[in-house]
Specification:
About 40% of the residues lie in helices and about 20% in strands.
Length: about 800
Amino acid sequence: MNPSTDTATDTAGSAALPDVPEPTVTAAPAPIKLDKEESAQDSPTVLGKLRTLVQDKTRFAPHDITPLGEQDVLQEFSLQANYALEARFEQRAINGYFAPSGNDCRCGAQEVGALAHAQEKERLRRAAGKLDAALHQAGQAYNGVEAGVYLPHAVKYWHLDTCNNCTGRGRISCHTCQGSTTETCWSCHGGRTVSCDAYGCYGSGKVSCSYCSGSGSVAEQVTDYITVQVPTTTYRNGSSHTSYHSETRPQYRTLHRSCHHCSYGKVSCNTCHGSGNIHCGTCRASGSGTCRTCSGAGDLRCNPCDASGKVGNAAWVDVHVAPGYSVSLPKQAPDDARRIRDKESVHSLAAIASSLALAKVSIYNEDQPQEVDALYAAKLRIVRLDAACNTQKHHLVAYGTDLRWLTLDDIVEKLLRGDLKALSDALAGSADDGLFSAHVQGLLAPLRDVAASELNADVIESILSGEPDHAHVDVVSNDYAQNVRTCVLGALRQVYTRLAKQFWWKSALAALAAAIAIWFFAGRGMAAVAGLLVTGAGYWLFKRKVKAVLSAALGGEQQAERAMRIASKGRRNQLAHVLILAPAGLAVLAASYGLPVRVRPPSAPPQSALASVPVAPHAPALPAQDASIQKAVKLYENGDKVQALAMLESLLGKGDASAYGLYGWMLLMGEGQPGPVTVPTAQQRAARQVAAKPLIGKGLVKGDSYALAAKGVMLAEGWQEPRNMARGLDLLKQAAHKGNAQAMHLLGLYNVRGVQMPVNHKEARKWFTLAADKGSAGDIYNLGLMDWEGAGLKRPDRTSAMQRWKIAAAMGEERAIKAVAQGKP
């Protein structure tokens, strides 16, 4: 224990001995009392301990071991405790806050250390006497004295003088302001101004001009008016006619002139007015401020005396003790006693000794003792047993009050090795049974004999847990421990694998049958789920079967569960799990992908949903299983609109909401109707619009691109809706962004014609190009027409126009064929 500098626990003239102080090092073993004796009738016998081990941890009977002779002796040994004493001189600097205790002595500055050193011999003598008395005290443990301060100081010698640093005042003049309470401003260094920190200035006095943004010139827009020829194309009955008219349009150009508000892009800074400096904000342009070191007080607390005005030192002597222990045997001690001494530590031997008593205490150099030795006489019980097992003789040695084994002479291991050899032979024989062998009975009997000895299971589990020493390391060797682990894990793997060979095809067949049965009623998805559930149930039944087989073989469910835990921890059941799960899983997978998709027969379409939908009576009927919205869209985009319309009607009859958008668009545009194409009357167009409007609304709910395009046309043209060109164009753009070529075509037409909006050739060309990329021959022709007339270009490009018309003509566009033939539109 480290003493405090102002505590006295002993006096030089006192005869009373203080208590042993608290230790400061790590705790030693629990104190062991002296003069302990053990009665012979209460002490266990080696034969009884050996038979208990055999009965509790093996399957053999205790009487398989026959005693031949036993020698029970008390071996004498000596335990020596050596206590090294050290007088440690301690000296500390003190100040005016030092408070001496009643025994502390004030002296001159030169006498403090000398008077403390003079106490060393006396303190060592008192410590040795105190230690001698403590060791002779009745019931004192041999290891009761711990390392640390044993005899704290009795008196401190101290001296205090006036502090020279502050001359006793406790405070000193501030070294920054020299007592003036103020210091030169640390920002402006007394200059009262600092560099301007305005944005863009930073001390230069100039900032960028806000009119020209620092460029030195401003842009001015000039408007010129030019006359252009604007083409107007009229489409009727698949042909077009282009006429031209003159329009005066503004043309804008930009002129740059020098900025009149600045000089080369710079103007004077409004913060510093061009000077580059501003008043210091730290000192408010005074050049000085309150001292940061003393906060304006002018003086500081004196460090040496801590503001007490006095400094000095104190000295004292503490006595420390460092115990050491050793064990010695008589020269004639037998070899097994020396092996026990080398195996056990000093404190362990003292703990298991039959008796331990103080024999002698020696103090070396009593004038100035440095060491104190305590000699303890002790006796250790050693039992030597000669026994026979399976006609073989063994010599066993145990020692201590708890009879720890020094050697078992492999007596238990030899009992167990017979079972282990039978299991090893069974495993070797199973290797010749063939790859598809599924019999396990030949392995169960030797496995039962090995597992019946609990010691084997303890050893295997400790090895699998990664413990440094296996269980019962004093009973069986490491070689035996590794052999029993290898044989038991190998036998468990064979049991698992062979049972899996008996069971896997049943699990796979059951999973396949369940999948097919559920497919017949609920389709492929539910068939896969049912197959997986049956596979899981088969895995659970397999584990139940393994547990039942091992329970019957090992004599109980508890033993079977322990064996299954060992197999799982040693990963010897993985191959069996693969054999159970993989075939069943593959069977379910094959059934899920191999069985056809079951489709419910179509129900009659609701009359209310189709009341406004005209149905072509002569449209070709399609098989129900071939009808899908993707096929209908593909047919429409490929130009087979009659077939597409028939498929859409079939989908609507089955209640497929995804068909409303395209069907509404075709109905609105009059596409897909059989017979020759004729120009509809106004009444026919209005009827189509009325019939298509509810279908388009239903398609909008699904976000269908054709429904968006149809709704956009209706708003742009004012069909059954108030005309709203902006909203109509917005819906057409939404449809175009979803890849709808019809919407792209309409956006191009609206921009090139300028209906209810300005003509925008650039935007028209953009949408025509996107539609052409989707394969629209009409829009390729339109791009060629714009090239021919120079719409959106600096000048007409008739070569490009003719190339585009040739491409469109090859795709069957009649206008392009005519234009190529006559060399003009």
